[in-house]
User: Fold this.
Amino acid sequence: MRVDTISGQPVIEVDRFCLRPLRPSDAGVLQLYAADRRVAEATSSIPHPYPPGAAEAFIAQAIRASQAASQDPGPGERRGIVWAMDGSGRNLGELLGVIALKCMDRSQAEIGYWVAPAFWNTGIASAAVQALVETNPLNCKAYFAQVFQDNPASARVLTKAGFEYIGDAETFSVARDTIVPTWTYIRKLA
Assistant:
């Protein structure tokens, strides 16, 4: 595995793709995938229908967060980094999905990800999660994650990367417009 840096954000090379910063040219494909009801309903934050301009706004926010992540945050500021899963180097497509780390208190982060339906069940999500566990780009002590209980494939991604189940919870899904039961996981890193 190789790690480089672009604009203060690590670029992580894995076997079939790389994790790289989002860029404005990703907007069209991001809009296409995020507008897919199956993708939106597997996340807590993607609305369905996906509004025009939302992809551009998400990318702009991710770029700002990436630039801020290279600096020490002030009191009360939370850092986070979003990566594109880019398979263009292996003829898989320029955007296979998205993975992010959102900082929490006490050197912890929440990991979240989605993969385009064309790449489901191909190991892309597992490889992306494992890459962030191995490189630990924010020097966290632990990662947390939650998945909807009706998405056991995403739970397998986490357990495969060494995450341990710690309990049930629930969260609001914007696309589903309801509270959805979740499983919560932790992966201790330090």
Remarks:
- The chain has one domain: 2-142.
- The chain has five helices and nine strands.
- The first strand starts at residue 2 and ends at 6.
